Amino acid sequence: MSRSSPGVARMAAILNFIADHPGQSFALTDLVRALKLSRATCHALLTGLVDVGYLYRTSDKTYVLGPVLAAIGRTAAEHFSPLQVAQPEMRKLADDFDVVCGAYFLEGDMIHLRERAASASHVGYPVPLGTRMPLRWVQATSFFARTPRDADAVQVRTNPAPTAEQLEQLHGGMAFVREHGFIALSRRAGTAPGDGIATINGMQDPPVVPEITLDDARTYSLMGIMAPIYDARDRVSISLVLGGFNDAMTGAEVRKAGEALAEACARISRFLIGQPEDF
Q1: Got the DSSP string for the chain?
Q2: Which residue of 39, 57, 149, 225 has the smallest Cβ count within 10 Å?
Q3: Residue 57: which domain range?
Q4: Per the domain annotation, does 244 fall within a domain?
């Protein structure tokens, strides 16, 4: 079991505590009491953080975030993309399951394919980067799993509006995502295997249905699996999609792929909200 060193953890605790109280400054005594550190240890850490510019010691001997840390924060805000974290996860998923893994961003009532990783057998996958398509009720199962009222609001704006049966499937799908972290999308009856996720674009009746239950022994004609990535507000702006499944799969196989996708999205979510990974 890998753990960070105690010194690193204590430095991070000091920085996080001060960052969590913007506009305030703290004396040595305040930090010792709040973080339950010995006075000598806390003083040594504060001195080191001041020396490298991560903290600034004011004239009244209190501490605030320093200029170097502020500069690092500005650089991160300007250049960081969640795709930097998602890309390695997407590559592994694509190779492990011989599929294409796409990152779809929610932009208003549209979804935008901004990154993808393809296994060797899917190099020529026909959905180009940059593809935009209207958010349909099927994809809403992932994007609004924890905010069903927002999902309903989007459906009101959809033309044509989903049927009562589709809305029932939408809410069942969102409940499945909340419980399991992913949703499997099967080909609707009469849909050819070559009809990919992109065929949802422009169609009034999407060629897929969400599987709101999974029977491990049943065989599914799988088109894709979606899973959400959450931000600090517990909302979803990105969903990862596994596509390119050409063979029928058992429920157990679907569940294995879905759980791997959900675990990857959970790791990305934890990073984006600043929650350390528990190894």
Answers
A1: -----HHHHHHHHHHHHHHTSTT--EEHHHHHHHHT--HHHHHHHHHHHHHTTSEEE-TTSEEEE-HHHHHHHHHHHHH--HHHHHHHHHHHHHHHHTSEEEEEEEETTEEEEEEEEE-GGGTT-S--TT-EEEPPHHHHHHHTTT-HHHHHHHHHHSSSPPPHHHHHHHHHHHHHHHHHS-EEEEEPTT--TT--GGGGTT-SS-SEEEESS--TTSEE-EEEEEEEEE-TTS-EEEEEEEE---S-EEHHHHHHHHHHHHHHHHHHHHHHTTPPP--
A2: 149
A3: 6-77
A4: yes
